[in-house]
């Protein structure tokens, strides 16, 4: 497992969330979330399924509107933006979805070219080719350039999904359950890749997970969500240095019941 090295600039806040609330009917999913993400920082949002983690990431990306509170991303209040402004902001954010979201009918090269051709219309073919080869090298999959997504393993597809977001060189990465459905060895590879992305691209990231190994490996800071709120925050060791049963049961669920 590679050593996690990061350079966090605590004088620069890239995401600021205050008093965030979201309900679906009578189901209150977020009940007052406050969070700052600093430049160059990986923050892990940890919680069991159904605690509102994915709803949080969708609100940050402007895919859902909050009922209350503010979400400020790179100086922009997300729910106040019009469609064009939101599109411009999203170009500065990379999303790594659980299913990798690749186009099965396109080769890996075409999958990676697609966001560039769509969003960077002034690039030459040579510049596009160089960007594709560079990002494939960065995720360790140069040899897959002419393959189809269906020929790749789950871990490789995840890497290519991350590469496709990186090709636009985002300032912020949002990872939604990056190790879900992967075997333990492949999960370690993805965790290492998240750290490499942070170092190579100087990204600031929010990593949504219920995987404690992912949290421990990638997080500069961990925020534990329970019942729609953060109730513990700090380094991994600080968060789990407690007798609080809500934390202990989570630790046992990951590291004891899974043995």
Strand order of the largest sheet: 6-7-8-3-9-10
Distance between the termini: 19 Å
Radius of gyration, taken over Cα atoms and rounded to an integer in Å: 18 Å
Uncertain parts: none
Assign an overall shape: globular
Task: Let me know the largest β-sheet.
Answer: 6 strands, mixed
Strand count? 10
Number of helices: 9
The proportion of residues forming helix, as a percent range, comes to 25-40%
Mean model confidence by pLDDT = 91
Structural class: alpha/beta
Strand content: 25-35%
Element string (H = helix, E = strand)? EEEHEEHEHHHEHEHEEHH
State the gist of this model:
The protein contains nine helices and ten strands. By secondary structure, the protein is α/β, with parallel strands linked by helices.
Description:
The protein has 259 residues and is of the alpha/beta class. It contains nine helices and ten strands. The strands form two sheets. It has a six-stranded mixed sheet with strand order 6-7-8-3-9-10, sandwiched between helices. It has a four-stranded antiparallel sheet with strand order 2-1-4-5, with helices on one face. Helix 5 runs parallel beside helix 6 and helix 6 packs parallel to helix 7. The longest helix is centred in the last third of the chain and has 18 residues. The mean pLDDT is 91.
